[in-house]
Structures are given as C-alpha cells and as structure tokens.
Design a protein that fits this description.
The structure holds 3 protein chains of 3 kinds.
Chain A lengths: L9 E12 L2 E13 L4 E5 L6 H8 L7 E10 L3 E2 L5 H7 L4 E4 L13 H11 L8 H10 L17 H13 L5 E5 L7 H18 L2 E6 L2 H7 L2 E6 L2 E7 H6 L4 H8 L39 H5 L4 E3 L5 E3 L5 H10 L1
Parallel strand pairs in A: 3-8, 3-9, 6-7, 7-8
Antiparallel strand pairs in A: 1-2, 1-4, 4-5, 9-10, 10-12, 11-12
Chain B lengths: L1 H29 L2 H19 L3 H12 L9 H13 L14 H36 L4 H15 L2 H15 L21 H38 L2 H8 L4 H34 L8 H11 L2 H29 L12
Helix pairs in contact in B: 1-12, 2-3, 5-6, 5-8, 5-10, 5-11, 5-12, 6-8, 7-8, 8-10, 10-11, 10-12, 11-12
Chain C lengths: L4 H28 L1 H22 L31 H7 L1 H28 L4 H15 L2 H14 L6 H11 L2 H16 L1 H9 L3 H12 L1 H24 L10 H10 L8 H29 L8 H11 L12
Helix pairs in contact in C: 1-10, 1-13, 2-3, 2-13, 4-5, 4-7, 4-8, 4-11, 5-8, 7-11, 11-12, 11-13, 12-13
The chains are: A alpha/beta, B mainly alpha, C mainly alpha.
The complex binds adenosine-5'-diphosphate, iron/sulfur cluster and magnesium ion.
Magnesium ion binds next to helix 1 of chain A.
Chain lengths: 335, 343, 330
C-alpha cells in the first residue's frame, strides 16, 4: 500500500453539527472526521438528508441559525482553523482560497443583476475593478464553455439551467481559489447537460489543479469523476477511500449496497439488491451502528455497540464492526 | 407580451373607472327627486337674488345632472350618456355651497393644495419608512425591530385626525412652532405669487399636515420593506454572495435594493391613498384642498361638489394603480418574462 | 345522497379533526410569539375595560350637568367635555360598540372573502371567476370608505344617519376584496399541489376539499385577514363618525371624537376630550395588528429568529453527556 504524505486540503476533526428547533437540538453530523486530499476530486455520496450539505456549510463556516456547531474543528489548507475565525477573516478566504458552488446554483444569482454585474459585485467586494479585470472574466467564461460574451449582458432568468450552473461555476472560480466545494452540481439538470458539466468540472480540475470536493446523492456520477469517495449515512461518514478501493472492495455494507443498487447495462434483468427501509431520522438515532436498522448483516452487537472507526491509510477508513465477515454473507443473502 | 399585458390592464382599469364614476350617476337617482329639488332650491335660493336671472338656467343644469326625475323626463340611458359627456368635460355644474362658482373651478383651485401636502408626505414617508424598515429587518428580533415596528404600527392605527389634533394643540396652539392652519399666511400681506416669502409661507404651513400624513403612512413602508427584505436576506442568491466572501454590509445593501422594487411599485398607489389621508385632515388644518371641500360638501349637502370630488378621487385611484403596473414592468427585469397571475 | 349514515359521521368527524388541529396549532403558534402575546394581553385589557363600562360607570355618561371643560381630576378622571359630560364615563361605555363593529366586520368581511376567493379559485378561468375577480378588483381600487361616505352624504338628504348595523353592513360589504384576491391565488396554488387534484379525481365533493384541505391549509392567512379586516372596520367606523355621517344618539368613541372635533377641543387645549377615545381606538387596532404579526411568523417559519448564543451556552454547560444518544438539549 502506497502511503501518500501530502497536506490535506481540508481536514475535519470530530465535527458535531446540529439544528435547533422547538423540540431542542437535533445533532446531524456526529463525529465526522475526514481529510480531503489536495489536487484531487473527492466525492461525498449519500442519500439526501444524510448531512452532506451540512458538512459543506460547516467547512465554508456558513453557519446560520438554526444550524449550530457543537464541537470539532476544520482546518483548511493546513493553516486556517475556520471555525475559530471571525467573519472578516473568513470572508478573506472565501472565494479566494476556498470557493463554493451551492446546491441551489439555479437560484444563486441575484435575479435583478446581469451576469456581469454579479462578477462586478464579487470583484468589488475585494476592492477589485471590473473593467481592469475584464480579461480575467472573459477567460473564466471561456473556461466554463461560453465562447460568446453576450452572456454577460443577460439576466439570470434569461439563462437555461445548464448555463446558470456554468455561470455560477465561473463566478466561483473568478478569484482563483485552490479548493472548491460543489454541492449537487448536476442535480436538476437533464442528462446531456449533466454530462457536459461533469466533463467541464473534470477539465477545470486538471487545468487548475484544484482540490475539488463534489457532493451528490448520485453515487454512480461520483464514481465517474472522483479520485476519492466518502459515503455518508445518517450524519456519519461510513466509509472513505480511493475510487479503486471502494469500487473493488467496499469495507462497509452500505457502500456495497449503494454501488450494487445502481442499475447498469450488465445488471439488466438481474435482481438488484435493495436497501430495505428508511433512515429513522436524527431524532430517533440508533444506539449502535447507524446503519444497523437497515443493514442485512446486522447483529445484536451492531445494534447495541457503535462500531469503531478503522483507518487503513492516510485517508481511507471505514466504520463497520463486521468487516470482513459480512462479505462472506453477501452471497447467501442475494442468491 | 409586456405591451399586451399593459393593454389588458388598461382596459381593465377603464372598466373599473366607469363603474366607479357611475356611482356618481346612480346615487342621486336613488334619492327621491323632490328632496334633492328642495335642497337645491333651498341652497341656491339665498344666492338667487344676488345672482339674477341665470339661476333658472343653472338649476336646469343641476336638475339634468342629478336626474331629478319629476322635473326631467328622459330615458335613463340618455341621461347616462349626457352624464358621461358632462363628466368627461369636467362639467359638474355649479357648487351649491359657493353658488354660482362651478365645481370644476373649485376643484381646480383645491387640487394643487392637496398635492402640495400629499406629494411631500409620500416622498418623505417613502424615504423614512424604507430606511426604518431596513433597520428593523437587519436587527430582526432585536430591540430596534420591536421599537420601529411597534411605534410605526401605533402611529398607523391611531386615528390620523387625532394625530393631527394633538400636533395642532401642542405644536401650534401651545408651542407656536407651527401655524394654526390654512395654506399660507393670509394676514401678513403675502400675496399668492412666485416670490420667496410666499413659497416659504406655503412650505411652513404645509409642514404640520405633511408630518401628520407621514406619521400615518410610515407603517406601510416599514412593514413592506421589512417583510420584503427578511426573506430576501435568506435567499440562496444572497447566501451565494456571502459564500463568495462579500461582506454582510454589501450583501444587505443588495438585499435592500431588491426589497425596494415592490415598494417603488407601491409608490403611486400610496400617492392615491394618501389623498384619502389628506381628506381626513385638511379640515383640521383649515387647509383648502380637496379634502376640505369634501368635508364641507358633506356637511352642506353640496351634491355637485361631492360628485366632482368623488370623480377626481376615483380617477386618481385608478390612475395610480395603472401607473404602478407600468412602473413594475419597467423596473423589474423579471416581469417581462415572468407569467403574470390572471386578474 | 347515497352515503350511509356511518360514513357521513365518519366524514364529519374527519372535518372536525382537521379544522381543530390546524386551528389549535395556529393558536399555539400565536401564543408562543411574544409580539402577539403582548397584543392578546392588550386586547384582553381593553375588553375588560369596556365590559366594566357596560355594567358600571362613575357617572351617567349622558349627564350634562357637570362644570364644562374641567381638566382631569380625582372627581373626573379624564375631565369633562364642553357639554359638561364626564369623559371617563363616556370612555367606559363607548368602547363596546366600536370593538363589536370591528370584530364583526372582521368576521363578516372574512367570511365574504372566503366565499368569493375560494369560489373564484376553484372555478378559476371560468365566467364565474371573471365576474367575481372583476368585482374584487373594483373594491380593491376604489376605497370602500369613500363610497360609504358618498352614500352617507346622499342619505343625509333624507336625514338618515348611519346606525351601527348599517355601518357594520357597509364596512363588511367593502372590506373583503383584499382577502378574496389573496385567497383566490392561495387556492390556485394549493390546487396545483397534487393532493387536491387527486382528491378531485377520487371524486371528493368540492365542499370536502374546501373544508378539509383549503381552509385548514390557509388558516394562518384567514386568521390574519380577520384582524386586518377588523382594523379596517375600526378605522372605517372612526372615519364615518369623523365626517358626521354616523348616528349620534349613542355615546361611543366615534361620537366622542365627533363632538370634540365640533367643539374644537384641539384648539382650546381640551386634550382630555379627544386623546383618550383616539388612543383607545388606536390601541384596539394596535392589538389586532400585533396579533397579526404573530400569525405572520407562524405562517412563515423562515422568518423566525433564533437566540443562538443561548444555545451555545447550554452546549458548553451540557458538554460531557453529549457523546451519544440523541444529543437533544431541552
Ligand atoms: N435549516 C434546517 N433546519 C432544521 N434541520 C435541518 C435544516 N437543514 C438541514 N436540516 C437537517 O439536516 C439533515 C441533513 O440535511 P442536509 O445536510 O441538507 O442533507 P443533504 O445535503 O445530505 O441532503 C436533514 O435531514 C434535516 O433533518
Ligand atoms: S456495523 Fe453491523 S450494522 Fe453496521 S454496517 Fe457493519 S455490519 Fe452493518
Ligand atoms: Mg444537500
């Protein structure tokens, strides 16, 4: 096993994040500890509601009520402890060091500003001038595939979904950040556009050697582009590792089930394993393993005792107390 | 598409306008003619001797306009047609109160005075209200928010003429800071002309009514701005600015600008409605605008004058709503493409 | 027609449950908002004050035998009028009709708004909707108060002053338009959501759809419209009296304002004559407006404010027993 000793782009330690409501505080992220490598594409997969966006918001220190950080630390680029920085300091690195393409990219552009005015707003906030940076803007637009400068004079409502997504990516990259988080960058777009956006993301990452964190509920899509993949369930990262490792040898049953529940051409006609049931919700959190209520391999121990996290290289780890025994039972269950 | 929409709205407003002004036609025809006839003769009779022979002719006009059936036997539709013809020429007949001065002349003289207090009041309330509303939105849930919302809301629910009465008693009668009433100083030999003393006198006399109207209408702007701005501050596109490191101050400035759009649209409607406010306070300030005469006309049963002023007010309301639609189309880039909800 | 008795009872039962739960949660939501609770207390205080007035006043409010224009004193808490009446006694008795007209206007106006708005919404884009929306627009644009004043002036010709019931009728008849318009669009947007469509497909009657889905779903708006219309009612009543169109035979806050105005109280320093009734009218309307704010917040939970510092403090205190379980802080 090759051990890479590089500084992670983002290093999350023991992060607990919750939301307050009338009934009290509901913890969503539970002890999330994960390192996101530099200059790689890392995917975070998980059902919707598993806490992916919450994690992304915490990394951006975009913590608004009712969201609340209970404990933990987040180090960005080896030196920025974002959770202990004040707003001014965070604003300093937002967009410049670490940038964000929000989940709601479709609704992320000020509806009464033309595209160029949105660039203008972002540049102005850094004391930069729009006109002296016009070439940078042209390049950014070209980067995301606009050969035509007309888009600058359009209002967001005049853009198609795919165009809006690309404009947001261009705006997010305008200050030349090294780390970019993209939350569901392809959700809500049609398949052809999805494909284009993915190609674009991959190209941009290579050209600019970005550290890219891509969040999606679509694990198949993540496997198309990611170098590393984390699988989240119920506010925990159940498994994290390189693309090859997860594809060939998942350590956690959830990863395995997710991967095998995606229909592919070869799986046609076969019975796909399905993950029975639903996540019970953060209010009635399981005592033992989060996944135990739905895991086909769960034992009583699983239900009672939370499994330990097992790290196997600088990045990779899994949470499951029954690895590798459960692997032997796979055949039994699905045949 | 935008043009079509405006034309559609325009036709709509014209229909509403017709319905509105037709009230002027219907009401006098519902009152027994003999009663109105008695009132007319009673009012004019006093002036008749001084006025001479033309009285009969003026009475004819009134009888025709108010549709006093036992004097005037023509089918209703012809009466209505005549009514429209008259009203479009702003011919409302002579005022009973100030016989034989035509109603149109009274309106012509009074309307500018009403606008002289309504326009500054709306502009002032717009500025102050929006800024207060922004402050409230930004300190949402805080003490400033409670004070601003509670305070302006109180001023709004407090009867506007009582506000006026209090201001007069304490600032004019007791403290002598402001004049007691009327549109300009009639004692100091200032003649209505384009001169500095006259203009100053007009401004000085308009201050208290304007303050009263502002106090009354602040809440509308405050609540409008606050309620527009709070959701906008949490919109994804505002969050995106924040995520790009734009400082909160600039973000809230942008939210303010967005929240201002609907308030701009309300501007002309507010003009229309402030005329209503003016009607409730002009008598207090002895301020001879439309409201003053509306009051007088109600007390003196001067129906031609009443009809004339009602016509003006309906026209102002309809116009201001139409202007609001046009402004909305102009200032919000989204409207030209967005679907518009039915009627 | 063909529905069996048991089924009918079942239906009725369901209607009750739905309405109560939506209604109850709204009430609870209002109560939990500080701003609307202040409004409720204020309203309660005023109602108690006015109810006392129905049974007891220090003096006969119509008695005109006191010295005129007395400033407030222990004998006359709010002084006397220019006609030698005790202001405080008048204030006590004069509130009930005003509040009653306000609340009833709110109820009737909202009822009309529901009727018109829901009908127009359910029959959107038919001739019924066109006509109803047209009428709504007219009342939206031409102020009802103005129409009432004009009518009142013409009634003056035959020496008729507007009594409470006429005022109530006139204000209710003119105060429903805004609510009807919003309800229409609310119904339209609720209809677009699938469940109403599907229940229409199933063949549930329109009445059931209205009472089980539309009204409970839009209850916050309906409640808010009630208070909004009630404020209109009170303001309208005040205006009608201000212009001298109301019947002057009974003592109420409106007639008090009218007489004080005629007596030029504000020019003669008799503030105790017109400020108290004005203030009471303002406070009633203010209490409605405050309750309304609370409803607004219940209806738009996004507008809620969180005292986040308090929670951080609790977390610090609770630190330690937070390692497992649900992690709930109460
Ligand atoms: N604004 C909020 N208020 C309360 N709870 C929230 C809020 N946002 C998210 N949550 C809770 O956090 C959980 C995770 O949400 P999120 O991080 O958006 O999931 P994902 O992005 O994986 O779909 C949700 O299931 C929800 O219960
Ligand atoms: S610990 Fe047990 S329940 Fe959890 S994933 Fe592993 S086998 Fe399944
Ligand atoms: Mg998400």
């Amino acid at each position: 096993m090759v051990i890479m000793v590089t500084e992670p782009a983002i290093s999350v330690r023991g992060l607990r994040v919750g939301y307050i409501s009338d009934s009290g505080l509901t913890t969503v992220l539970r002890n999330v500890t994960i390192d996101i490598p530099s200059n790689k594409i890392t995917g975070i997969a998980g059902e919707s509601g598993s806490g992916k966006s919450t994690l992304a918001s915490a990394i951006m220190k975009f913590i608004n009520p009712p969201m609340l950080v209970e404990s933990g630390s987040i180090i960005v680029d080896g030196k920025y402890d974002v959770l202990s920085m004040d707003n001014e300091q965070v604003n300093e690195i937002r967009g410049k060091l670490i940038s964000f393409v929000p989940q709601a990219a479709q609704n992320s552009l000020n509806p009464i500003r033309k595209v160029k005015e949105i660039f203008f707003d972002v540049l102005k906030s850094r004391g930069m001038d729009y006109y002296s940076n016009i070439n940078v803007i042209y390049r950014a637009l070209e980067d995301v595939g606009f050969s035509d400068k007309q888009v600058l004079d359009m209002y967001p409502f005049q853009l198609s979904g795919g165009m809006r997504q690309r404009v947001v990516i261009a705006v997010s990259l305008i200050l030349d950040p090294r780390i970019v988080i993209m939350d569901e960058p392809t959700t809500g777009l049609d398949v052809v556009v999805q494909h284009e956006i993915l190609k674009l993301i991959k190209r941009l990452q290579k050209e600019k050697s970005l550290s890219l964190l891509i969040i999606s509920h679509d694990i198949a899509m993540l496997f198309q582009i990611s170098d590393y993949i984390a699988v989240m369930y119920g506010g925990q990262v159940l498994e994290y590792g390189s693309y090859e490792t997860l594809l060939e040898d998942a350590y956690n049953p959830y990863t395995y089930l997710l991967l095998h529940s995606v229909p592919t051409i070869t799986s046609r006609g076969k019975k796909l394993p399905r993950i029975p049931g639903d996540f019970e919700g953060f209010g009635r959190y399981p005592k033992g393993c989060v996944f135990s209520s739905r895991c086909p391999f769960a034992t009583d121990t699983c239900r009672e005792v939370p499994p330990e996290k097992v790290s196997y290289d600088q990045y990779g780890f899994y949470i499951c107390s029954r690895y590798p025994e459960w692997k032997k039972e796979v055949k039994k269950i699905y045949e | 598409m935008k043009k079509e929409y405006l034309i559609k709205r325009g036709i709509y407003y014209i229909i509403i306008w017709f319905v509105g002004i037709s009230i002027d036609f219907i009401l006098p025809r519902l009152i027994p003619g003999s009663v109105l006839g008695t009132i007319i003769y009673g009012r004019i009779g006093a002036a008749a001797s001084a006025y001479g022979n033309n009285v009969q002719q003026e009475i004819e006009i009134l009888v025709q306009q108010l549709g006093l059936s036992q004097y005037y036997h023509t089918p209703l539709y012809i009466q209505y047609f005549d009514f429209l013809k008259d009203i479009i020429q702003l011919n409302f007949g002579p005022s009973l109160l100030e016989f034989p001065v035509p109603v149109s002349q009274i309106i012509e003289e009074a309307a500018p005075w009403t606008f002289a207090i309504v326009i500054p009041a709306v502009v002032g309330a717009f500025f102050i209200g929006n800024i207060l509303g922004r402050t409230a939105a930004l300190s949402r849930g805080g003490i400033k928010d409670y004070l601003i919302v509670g305070g302006t809301m109180f001023l709004y629910t407090f009867p506007v003429f009582v506000t006026g009465e209090i201001l007069i008693e304490f600032l004019a009668v007791d403290a002598h800071i402001f004049p007691l009433g009327s549109q300009y100083n009639t004692f100091k030999f200032i003649r209505p002309e384009f001169s500095l003393p006259f203009i100053w006198s007009v401004v000085y006399h308009a201050m208290l009514p304007v303050i009263t109207l502002i106090a009354f209408s602040l809440a509308g702007w405050v609540m409008g701005m606050r309620n527009n701005m709070i959701p906008i501050l949490q919109e994804d596109y505002m969050n995106y600015y924040r995520l790009m490191g734009v400082p909160e101050k600039q973000v809230s400035q942008k939210a303010y600008r967005l929240a201002l759009l609907p308030n701009f649209t309300s501007f002309s409607i507010a003009l229309g409605y402030s005329v209503l406010g003016a009607i409730a306070i002009e008598l207090l300030f002895n301020y001879a605008g439309l409201g003053y005469f509306f009051n007088e006309a109600i007390t003196a049963l001067d129906y031609p004058l009443l009809n004339g002023i009602f016509f003006m007010l309906v026209t102002a309301m309809v116009l201001s709503n139409f202007v609001a639609d046009i402004v909305y189309g102009m200032i919000d880039p989204r409207t030209s493409h967005e679907e518009t909800e039915g009627v | 027609m063909g529905v069996s008795r048991t089924k009918q009872r079942e239906r009725r039962f369901r209607i009750n449950v739905d309405k109560q739960s939506a209604f109850y949660s709204l009430l609870q939501g209002i109560w939990e908002q500080r701003i609307s609770r202040v409004g409720l207390y204020l309203l309660l205080g005023i109602i108690v004050f006015c109810t006392i007035g129905v049974f007891y006043t220090p003096y006969n409010p119509n008695q005109t035998s006191f010295p005129r224009d007395l400033p407030p004193s222990f004998q006359h808490l709010l002084g006397t009028t220019d006609y030698g009446q005790d202001v405080f006694s008048q204030l006590l008795v004069g509130g009930f009709p005003v509040i009653a007209v306000g609340i009833l206007t709110g109820l009737i106006g909202t009822f009309i708004a529901i009727l018109v708005g829901i009908t127009a919404g359910l029959y959107a884009d038919t001739i019924v909707d066109r006509i109803l929306s047209g009428i709504t627009q007219i009342f939206l644009i031409i102020p009802g108060i103005l129409i009432i004043e004009l009518i009142g002036a013409y009634l003056g010709a035959i020496s008729i002053k507007l009594g409470y019931f006429v005022i109530l009728g006139a204000l209710s008849a003119t105060g429903w338009a805004w609510g009807a318009r919003v309800l229409r669009s609310l119904v339209l947007s609720t209809r677009r959501k699938e469940y109403i469509l599907s229940s229409e497909l199933i063949g549930e009657s329109k009445m059931n759809v209205i009472f089980q889905q539309i009204i409970p779903n839009n209850l916050p708006f309906i409640a808010s419209n009630f208070f909004f219309t009630a404020i209109y009612g009170i303001a309208g009543l005040t205006f009608i009296y201000y212009f001298g169109l109301g019947s002057l035979t009974q003592v109420n806050w409106g007639t008090m304002l009218y007489w004080s105005l005629g007596g030029e109280a504000y020019l003669r320093g008799l503030w105790w004559w017109y400020v108290p009734p004005g203030l009471m009218i303002g406070l009633v309307a203010l209490s409605f407006a405050l309750i309304n704010r609370g409803i607004d917040r219940v209806a738009n939970p996004k507008l809620r404010e969180w005292n986040i510092k308090k929670y951080y403090k609790q977390i610090k205190e609770n630190n330690g027993d937070n390692g497992d379980g649900t992690g709930n802080i109460s």
